[in-house]
C-alpha cells in the first residue's frame, strides 16, 4: 500500500560544468528529475512509501534514471518500459544564472517515451493501492494523450477513494494561460489538495483581490480541501526568501509561518516540488496544519541549497531546520 | 571558393565521465561530431577550405555546436538556423568499451533540425562554389527527406562540375542492407570517389571474391574514379591495426602501405571519417596516389588516439607521423 | 520472498583520483562495496530479489551507502541502523596498480557498526523468507562476534531449508590460514554451494593433487552440492584471463568453458564476487549447469572492466557478452 | 571588409582549479584572452565581422589559442605565425579573490611572440579593409617596439579613413602614470573614440573637476568624437555595481542609464573590454547613442558573470538583458 | 631550536565534491588538518620554525599526511610512526552548508594512532628545544591518555621555561561543559597565553558580566599573561564579520581593531586556529600588541576565504591585507 | 650535513587534462619537476638528506614550487629567491602520447630565474656540507652562465672532497651533440659517477663498439669510478622494458639484473632521473653493487607507472618491488 503515487515524466537535466556556459561547455552534469518524481522522492525520503507512474526506455540511459529513482526510495513498480527503437527519455538543458544574467532552460522533451503511456497499461488494483494521487499541470501541457490520461487517472483515483493532489506548475513554454485555465477548471472538482501560486491564480485563472480571498474562492467553487501557495521573493539568483500560505477549507483557517530570509540559493530547480512534498508528507502523516506548513516550507527552502532536481535530504535535517528556524538558533554547526 | 563542401548532420555525443557507465553516471563529456562534419574538419585542419551544409537550432546548444565547427576552421556559411520552438540537435550516447565489454551506442537523433533542411534553402551559387562535394550513406538512412536531398545535391553538384565523394558508412541501426544497396546503387553513377569497406561490399552489396576485384568492379560498373577501402583489425578495444587499399581506375592501379600495428586506441569514433578526410585532402591537393594513401592512413590512425569525434590535429604532426611510419623511427619523443 | 539474502559488511572504498597516489592525492573517488553486498547486487541486477543483512550508522554517510544499495535493487529491509555516537562504516583505501607496481589496499575497517550486529536483532521470519543464504569467510576473519553470528545464521538458514552458499574469500591480512581452515571446516557440513580457489584449497586447506580431485573431495567429505572455482591468470595489472570450473556433485559432472582472454582490466575489485553472483543467479534460476558457468564467468569477467566494487550491469549486456564469447563475434560495436 | 580590426596580444590565463590557490594547486583552468582580443570577440559575437592583428607561435599551444579565436568568430587572417624556436605566447596567472582577500595577478608575458610583430609584416590593403581600428594602452606599456607599432598603426589607419578607437587600460605593473600620460597625449589627436575611467583621467592625466567636464575637455583638446567612461563600484569580490557615461562631442550630449546593481560577479576579468565591445558595436552599427550606452553596459555587466576572459554571449541574451534592465522584469527564468 | 611546538592530532577531512552532499556523493576532496597542526602551519608560513608532536600510521595514507605537513614548512621531527596493523589516522567528514542549511560534521576519529602517543616517547631535549608550546582542549576531550599527556606536557614545558599557550576549542560532541571546566581550570595555572571565546567563557566557565571583566578575571585568577578572544558574527554561511579582543595582563591593557566586515566565507574550518597562529606569531616575534591583534585577525579572516583546514598563505599577502584593512583601500586587485 | 646536493632548474610542467590535447584543452594538470630536483627527491624519499641549489621567483607561483619541494623532503635551504619583477619559473608543456602518436614537449623555459643564479650567492660552507654533488648536461645546454656555474661548482665540490655525479641527459632541442661533447669532455675529469646511455655514448661522444667496452673506456680515460647506463626498450607508449648496466671501475666489474618487462607506462617523464636517484642512493648508502643496480632499476621502473615528474614513493614499496622482481612473485596484491 502506497502513501503516494504520482504520475509524470522523468527527465534528464544537463547542466554545463566547471563554470562553463552552453556556448562553450565540453561537459554536462546530469541529474534525474521531473516535477512529479521530485514530489514522490521528497515524500519518500521523509518516510512514506511512494511510487511513480511513468514510462521510460529500456536502454541503459533509461536504466540509469531507474537506478536514481530507486536510490531515493521511490518504487519503480509502475515505471513502464518502452522497448521501441525510438524510445527516448525527455531531457532539458539548464544553465545556471548569475544576476543579472538569468538561468536558461532549453527543452528537448518532445517525442519521449512518457508521452506514450496509456492508463490501460496500469493494473486495476493500482487505484486501490494508494492513499493519495498527485500530478501536475505539466502533463496536460505536453500533448493530447497526456492530457487525457491525466484526466482519466484523476477521476479514477478519486472514484476509488484516494486523495487527489494537483499542482498547477504553469509553464509558459508548454501551453498558454487560456488553455491551462480551461483544462484545469475541468479537473478541479476532483481535486482535494491544490497547489497554485498567487501569480498563477491572477494571471492564469484571472482571479483578483487578496490572496486569502482567492484561496477561499477556489476552495468553495470546487470543493477543494486544502489550498497551498508558496511565496518566493527573488532578490538575486543567489538570494531568495521563501514562505507559504495554506488554507484549510474544512476549518476555514489560514496557516503560515515567518519567512526564511537570506536563503543562499545554489539550485532553485525543484524547490516548488519539494514544497509540495513537504506539504503532502504532513497531510498524509496527519500532522497538525501548522506542522504541515513547516514541513512544506522547510523542504522548499532546503531544496534551494541542494544541487540537483530532487531534494536529497534526511528527515533528521528537516526536523533540525524547522526547529532552528523556530528557535532562531544560528549556531554555525554542530561539532 | 571551397575545396570541399559536405552535407550531413551535426551531432552531440555524450560519454559518461570518470570511469562511470551509463548505468551510474552523473555527468557526460560532450563532443561535437557527425560523419560529414568530421570529414570537413579533417580536411580543413590539413589546410584546405571547407564548409558543411546542415541545419541546427538557433538556441545556445546549437550555438555551442557552431562554435566548435568554427574552431576547427570549417565555415558556417551553410549552416542553416532552425528557429522553431521544437528545434533540436541530434545526439547520441556513447559508452567506451573495455574488452570484452564492447562500446555501446544509444541514438537519440530523431526529429532533429537537420532532417528538415531543404535543398531549396541553398543559394544557387553554392554549386559553383566548391571543388568537391562529399556526403555519406547516413543521410538517406535517416528518412525520406534527407534521402531525397542527398540525391538532389549529389546530382546538382555533379552537373556543375564538382567532384562527388561518397562514403557508404553503413549503419545497421538506421536502415537495412537491402535498402542501402538499392539506394546507393542509384547514386553511384554520380560518384567519383567511393569509400566502402570490404565487409560492406560483401554483406550489403553482395559482392564476392577478392577485394581488388570487387573494387575494380565498382569502378567499371559505375564509372567511379577512385575506390577507397580502409582495413581495420580489432585486436581488443585498445589495440587495433589499420591500413587501406586505394584503387585508381584511371590508371588501373592499386595503392597501399604497410599497416600501422599496435595502435593504442583511446577513441575509435570518427577514425573512418578521418581516413576519408586524409584521402580527400590528398586527392584535392593533387598529391601522388601513394601520398594520398599515406594521408588517409595517418589521419585514420591518429584519430584512434584522440578523444572526440573530430581528428583535431596539426598538419605538422601528420607529416611527422607519416615520416616516422615510413622510416621506422621509434624515438620516444622530441625534446 | 527473497531469492537471496547475504550477510556481510558494507564498506566504503577510497581510491585516489586523477592519476594521483596515496602519497600525493587531494581527493578520493568513493565506492560502496563489500563482498556480500557485491554478490547480492549482482544477483539483483540479473533479475532476482535480494537483500543484505548488515548494520550501518544512521548518519548521512551511512545513508549514502544505503542509497547506493537501493539503487542496485538490493532491499534495505535487513540493514539495521546503528544509532550510537561512535557508529562508523568500515572503509578501505585502494590504490590502482600499474605493472609492475601492484595495487595497494589499506584497511580501516575496525570497530565498525557491522561488527556489532547480533542475530537476535533479526526477525524470526527472515529464516523462512529466502531461497538462498550466502556469506563469506571475511566475516569470521573480522572478530569473535561476526564469527559466531556467521555460524549461527548458516545453521539456522540451513535448518529452515534455505540453500547455503559460502565463499572462502581468504584474506591474509585479516586472519591466518590455520584459523581459516579450522573455522571453515566446521561450517562446511552446512554448506550447499562452495566457492574456493585452487590456491586457497591448496595453501589453506592443504589439499593436494588435481583441482578436479580436490573439488570432488570437498563435495564428498562435507556433502556439498556445488563446488565452484574461478581461475584467473594475471598477465599484468591491465590484462587478465578468466574462466572457472564447476563441479556438480549430484551428477558427478564438471563444467567449464573456454577462457576469456585479453581482458582489459580497469578495476579488478569485486570480480570474484561478481563471479559468485552470476553462478548463484544461474543456480537459483534453475538454469542448466553449462549456463550457470556462463553466467558466472561473464559476470566475473565484465566486473574487471567496470569501475567500482559492484558489477553494475544490465542482464541484456551479460546475455550479449555470453553470446559473443561463444560465437567468437568480435564486431567492434553495434550502431 | 571588416567592421573592426584590433591590435594586441593574445594571452593565456591560468587559474587554479577546484578551490585551490597558487600555493597549493595541482592544476589550472586555461583561458584565452587579451584586452584587444576580448574587444574583437565581443563585437563579433554581437554580429559584426572582426579580426585581430597579432603574432603567436606556430606550435600546438599557439594553435590552441588560434582555435579559440576562431570559435568566437574572430578572423585569424592577421594572426602572424612565429616560427622561431623561442616563440612563446604571453601568459598570466590569475587567482580568484574572496573578500577581503583580493584577486592576484602574476604576469609571465615577457619575450612573447607578439612583441616581435612589425607593422611591415602587414599587407598594404589592411588599412583600407576596416571601418574601425581599436587598440589599447597595454601595447605601448609592453616595450619599445609595440609602442612604435601602436603609433604607426594608429596613424596609418586614421590616414586611410578608419575610425580609431583607443582604451587607456592603465596597468600600473607595466608602466608609470607619467610615461602613460606622455605617450597617450601624443596619440590622442588621432583618436575618434576614447575609453578612459574617471580614476585614470584624474590620477594619470591629472585632470580635475567633474567627470562631465573632464570628458568634454578631452574631446575639445584632441578633437575626439566619443568619450566613454565605465563606472564600477566594488562592494565585494562577488558584488559590483556597473554603469557608464558617454559623451558625444558632435552633439555635446551626455548619455547614461541607471546602474546595474547587485551584480553577482563570478569573473571580473575582461568586463572592461566587454564594455568597449558593446559600445563599439553600437557605434559601428549606427545605433542611437542611448542604445550604444545600453549595449556597452549590458556587455560589461554580463561579462562579470561569465567565466573566462572573453564575453561568450549570444546577441539574443544581450537584448533580453537590456530589455529586462529597462523594464525591471525580475522573473527568475523563462521555462 | 623551534619557535613553536604544538601537540595534537592530525586529521583527514573528507568533503563531498562538485556540489554533492553526503547522501549522494561519489567522491571526496581530502584535506589534512587538525587544530594544533593548523596553528603550527600558520606560524611556520609567517616565518618562524615550528613542529608538531603527534603520532600517525606508517602506511601510505599516513605518509600523505606527513607530506602535507612538510609542504607547509612544519617539521616532522616529532611525528611518531605507528607501525601497528591497526594504525589509523583520525578523520572527519564535512559537508558545506548553504544558509539556512548548516554545515555538517561527522567524526570518525576514534581509535586513532594519535591516541596512543605517550610522552615517554619524546626525547628529553624536546623540552628545552622550543620557545613556546601550544595545545588545545580537544586533546583532553578525546580520552584518558591524551588528557594525561596534555597535562604532563604542559607542566614539563612550563617547568623548562617555555611559554605555554592553550586554546579551549570547546567541542560539544567530544565532552561536556562540566568536564571541560573541571579539567581546564586545573591546567590554567600553567598557561601563559589563553584563547577562549566569550560564549565558552560564559557557557562553560560560567563567567558573567562584560567580556573585558571576564578576561581580567581569568588573568588574575590564574596568572595568565595574555587572554585572546576572537569575535565572529555569522550573518550567513557565506558572510561573516570577524575581529578580536586581546588583554595584556602585564600592562592591564586591552587591544582591538575595527572588524573585518562582509567576509566572503568559502571555508570556515580552521579560521579559529589561524587566528591563534597569527596571534602567537606576533607574540613570539615580539611585535607590539596592536600588531599582534592585526596578525591574529588577518590570519583568522583570510582563512575563511581559503579552502582546506590550513591557512596556506604568504606573509606578503597577510601584510598587504592588514595594510589595506587599515587604509580602507579597496582597489580590486593589483595588475 | 647533506648526503646529496643537486644543482639544476625547477620546472613547471603543464599537461592537458581529461583526454584533451594541446589543440583543444581548457585546463592543465601542473607538476613540479626538473631533472636534478627529481634526483634529489628520489634520494630523499629513500631516506637520505638532500637539497637543491637553484633560484625561483618569490611570487606565489614560485612558492607553490617550493612547497612541492618541501613535501618531498628536499631541503629548500639553497633555493635562492628571485625578487625581480621579471622573475619567472621555467616551464614546459607535455602532451601524452598514444602509439603511434608520440608524446610532445613544448619548452617555455627561456629567461627563467634559474638562469641568473651565480655561484657567488652560495655560502662557502656549502662545499663542505655534502657527501655528493650531482648535476646534469641540461645546465650547460641552457646558456653561458649556467654552463660556467656548472663547471665552477663541479670543480669546487670536487676540491672539497665531495663525490661528483653527472648525468649527460642529452637534449637535442637545447644544444648540439658537438657542443655537448666538447663541454662534457672538459668536465669528465672531475666526475666520479657518470650516467650516460648507449645511444648518447655513440651518437654524441662518437664511441663505437660494445657497451661494456665503451663504459670501460670512459672510466679509464677520465678516471671515473662508476659508469651507469640505463637500457630502455619502447614497445609502445604504454609498454616499455627497462634494465641497466653498471660498471665499477675500482673492481673492473659489470653489474646487471634481468630486465623488467611489460611495464605499464603511465608517465615516462623523470624515469631516467629516478634511475639516477636509486643508483645514487645505493652508492651513498654503501650498498653492495648488485643492490645499487636493483635500487636504480626499481626506481626507474616504478617512475614510469607514476604520474608527475617526481617518483613519489615509499622505501617500503621499492623494497617490495625489488623483492618481487627477484622472486618472480606475481600475486596481484596484498589484502
Word description of this protein:
By secondary structure, the first copy, chain A, is α/β, with parallel strands linked by helices. Chain A has ten helices and 15 strands. Chain A has helices at about 35-45, 60-70, 140, 145-160, 175-185, 200-205, 210-220, 270-285, 290-305, 315-325, and strands spanning about 5, 10-15, 25-35, 50-55, 75, 80, 90-95, 105-110, 130-135, 165, 195, 225-235, 240-250, 255, 260-265. In chain A, the strands form two sheets. In chain A, strands 1, 4, 5, 6, 9, 10, 11, 12, 13, 14 and 15 form an eleven-stranded mixed β-sheet that branches. Chain A has a four-stranded mixed β-sheet with strand order 3-2-7-8. In chain A, strand 10 (about 165), helix 5 and strand 11 form a beta-alpha-beta unit. In chain A, helix 1 (about 35-45) crosses helix 8 (about 270-285) and helix 8 packs antiparallel against helix 9. The longest helix of chain A has 16 residues, at about 145-160. The radius of gyration of chain A is 19 Å and the shape is globular. The model of chain A has no long low-confidence stretch (mean pLDDT about 95). Chains in contact: A-B, A-C, A-D, A-E, B-C, B-D, B-F, C-E, C-F, D-E, D-F, E-F. The interface between D and F is medium-sized, with 30 and 30 residues. Strand 3 of chain D pairs antiparallel with strand 3 of chain F, so a sheet runs across the interface.
Amino acid at each position: 500500500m502506497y502513501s503516494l503515487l504520482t504520475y509524470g515524466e522523468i527527465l534528464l537535466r544537463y547542466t554545463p560544468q566547471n563554470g562553463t556556459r552552453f556556448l562553450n561547455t565540453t561537459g554536462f552534469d546530469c541529474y534525474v528529475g521531473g516535477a512529479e518524481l521530485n514530489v514522490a522522492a521528497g515524500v519518500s525520503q521523509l518516510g512514506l512509501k511512494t511510487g511513480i507512474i511513468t514510462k521510460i526506455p529500456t536502454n541503459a540511459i533509461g536504466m540509469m534514471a531507474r537506478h536514481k529513482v530507486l536510490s531515493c526510495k521511490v518504487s519503480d513498480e509502475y515505471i513502464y518500459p518502452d522497448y521501441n527503437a525510438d524510445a527516448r527519455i525527455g531531457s532539458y538543458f539548464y544553465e545556471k544564472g548569475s544576476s543579472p544574467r538569468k538561468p536558461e532552460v532549453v527543452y528537448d522533451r518532445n517525442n519521449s517515451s512518457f508521452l506514450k503511456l496509456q492508463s490501460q497499461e496500469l493494473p486495476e488494483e493500482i487505484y486501490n493501492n494508494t492513499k493519495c494521487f498527485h500530478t501536475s499541470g505539466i502533463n496536460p501541457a505536453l500533448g493530447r494523450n497526456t492530457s487525457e490520461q491525466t484526466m482519466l487517472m484523476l477521476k479514477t483515483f478519486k472514484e476509488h477513494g484516494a486523495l487527489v493532489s494537483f499542482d498547477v506548475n504553469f509553464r509558459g513554454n508548454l501551453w498558454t494561460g487560456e488553455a491551462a485555465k480551461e483544462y484545469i477548471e475541468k479537473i478541479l472538482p476532483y481535486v482535494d489538495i491544490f497547489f497554485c501560486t498567487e501569480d498563477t491564480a491572477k494571471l492564469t485563472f484571472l482571479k483578483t483581490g487578496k490572496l486569502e480571498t482567492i484561496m477561499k474562492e477556489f476552495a468553495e467553487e470546487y470543493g477543494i480541501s486544502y489550498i497551498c501557495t508558496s511565496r518566493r521573493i527573488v532578490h538575486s539568483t543567489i538570494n531568495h526568501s521563501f514562505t507559504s500560505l495554506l488554507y484549510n477549507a474544512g476549518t476555514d483557517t489560514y496557516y503560515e509561518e515567518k519567512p526564511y530570509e537570506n536563503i543562499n540559493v545554489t539550485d532553485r530547480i525543484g524547490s516548488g516540488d519539494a514544497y509540495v512534498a513537504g506539504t503532502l508528507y504532513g497531510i498524509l502523516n496527519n500532522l497538525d496544519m501548522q506542522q504541515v506548513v513547516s514541513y512544506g516550507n522547510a523542504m522548499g527552502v532546503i531544496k534551494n541549497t541542494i544541487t540537483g532536481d530532487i531534494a536529497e535530504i534526511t528527515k533528521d535535517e528537516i526536523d533540525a531546520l524547522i526547529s532552528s528556524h523556530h528557535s532562531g538558533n544560528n549556531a554555525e554547526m554542530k561539532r
